[in-house]
Every structure is written in C-alpha cells, then in structure tokens.
Design a protein that fits this description.
With about 180 residues, this protein is an alpha+beta fold. The chain contains eight helices and four strands, in the order αααβαββααβαα. A four-stranded antiparallel beta sheet has the order 1-2-3-4.
C-alpha cells in the first residue's frame, strides 16, 4: 500500500473501531454465529450464506467494515465469505471469515462436488487452512488471498485483494449516492 491508499482508508474508516481489540470482537461475533448453528446441526456445510449474513449484521452493528464476497461472482464457486478490516498501529488489517470452510477439506464419507480437487489440500499455506478449520477466521493479505482462491481454481490470477476491496467500496459509494438522490 502507498500513503494515498492509507489516507483513503483512514478517511473511510474514521467512524469505525480502529484498535487492536477489534480482531477479538470479530472472532467473538464469528464464534457466536457458529455456536448458534451448531445448536441445530454439527455440520456447517451449506450454511455459508446464512453464517455470512448473521456475522455481517453483527459486524455492521459494531461499526466494523466488512465485505460480502460471493465466490460465484469471482471464480464460479457457490460459496460466500466475508472480509473484515480494521486499523492497527501498523496499518489496515484484513481478516478472511469463512466458518464453513471445513466442507472444502477432504473427509471420510464426503464427496467433492463441482471441483476437481479439495481446496483444503490445494492451499499451500497450511497455517491458513488450520486457522479456518479452528476458528473460521484467518489473517489476509494479497499472497494469502491468492493462495485461498487458487485452492478453488487456477483461474484467479487477476483477482487481487486490493482491487476487489476498492471495487466493493466504489459500488457501495455509488449505491449510497443513488439512495441520497
């Protein structure tokens, strides 16, 4: 990132919680949503949209900027994740929120549908896979984002995290402008 990007992000996030505790809050919100679903079923397969919606609502209520990422729009995979962002002393940080990622890992009695390989096997950063399996959340930067997407498809080279989030912000601003008119 360069100084203009940092300045732009600081203006956009002026009313958001911008401290180190935000990550803990995001983790708590995610855990609560997962625990609620697990009261009904231990298997989170197919609950990505429901979980993302619940988590996003709580993140919004807590003033945490987040982005709904529909992987179907990006790489033709029927799955939704969130990306949350928050400011720390070292700058803007991003978290990938994917509490139902386990469905993309090789398991007994599970069949792979619409994919050639298990994303959990293809992702090179095994710490990211472990984070997603343990808590449904992992730190995110360009390298990890690319690795995550390439776990699903080889056709993701042109989808940078930076450009994706800028495009989402641009669309959000356009939508807000339309609502004001």
């Amino acid at each position: 990132m360069n100084n203009i990007d940092d300045f732009y992000n600081s203006i956009l996030n002026i009313r958001l919680q911008q401290n180190e505790k935000t990550k803990e809050l995001i983790q708590g919100i995610t855990k609560k949503a997962v625990d609620e679903v697990k009261k009904v079923t231990p298997d989170l397969d197919g609950f990505c949209k429901f979980l993302a919606s619940e988590i996003q609502e709580n993140l919004n209520q807590n003033g945490i900027r987040n982005y709904w990422i529909d992987l179907n729009e990006l790489i033709n995979v029927d799955h939704v994740v969130l990306i949350a962002e928050y400011r720390t002393a070292v700058g803007m940080q991003h978290l990938l929120i994917d509490p139902s990622f386990r469905q993309f890992t090789k398991q007994e009695n599970k069949k792979l549908i619409k994919l050639n390989d298990w994303p959990g096997e293809k992702i090179k950063d095994k710490n990211m896979v472990a984070d997603l399996l343990e808590s449904g959340i992992t730190e995110l930067d360009e390298k990890r984002w690319t690795d995550y997407l390439q776990g699903f498809t080889e056709n993701s080279q042109n989808i940078t995290l930076d450009n994706l989030l800028k495009e989402k912000l641009k669309r959000e601003e356009q939508e807000n402008d339309r609502k004001r008119k």
